[in-house]
Amino acid sequence: MAGQIKHIIDTIIEKRSRGNPTIALTTKTKFIFKGVNPDRFDHTSADDPGLIARVRAIGAEMGVSV
């Protein structure tokens, strides 16, 4: 299933920001600081199990479970 990484990142951003655009931007910035640029992924991106685990770990650090 392609695009799983994009879906996970979007879910983390939505849950953390709760509609607040400032927090959404801050969350994207935190992903970039952790080495994952959310803008590089789309719904056709290949799913890498290592990257999926890394994105989930970043989400857990932010207090969001996916």
In words, what does this structure look like?
- The chain has 66 residues and is mostly helical.
- It has one domain.
- It is 61% helix and 0% strand.
- It contains three helices and no strands.
- Helix 1 crosses helix 2 and helix 1 runs parallel beside helix 3.
- The radius of gyration is 11 Å and the shape is globular.
- The two termini are 17 Å apart.
Q: Summary?
A:
With 66 residues, this protein is mainly alpha-helical. It has helices at 4-17, 21-33, 49-61.
Structural domain count = 1
pLDDT under 50 segments (min length 5)? Answer: none
Number of helices: 3
Structural class, from secondary structure content? mainly alpha
Q: Level of helix content?
A: 55-70%
Average of pLDDT: 92
How do the helices and strands follow one another from N- to C-terminus? HHH
Per DSSP E runs of 2 or more residues, the count of β-strands stands at: 0
Approximately what portion of the residues adopt beta-strand conformation? under 5%
What spatial form do the alpha-carbon principal axes imply?
A: globular
Report the major sheet. Answer: none
Determine Rg (CA atoms, Å): 11 Å
The separation of the N and C termini measures 17 Å
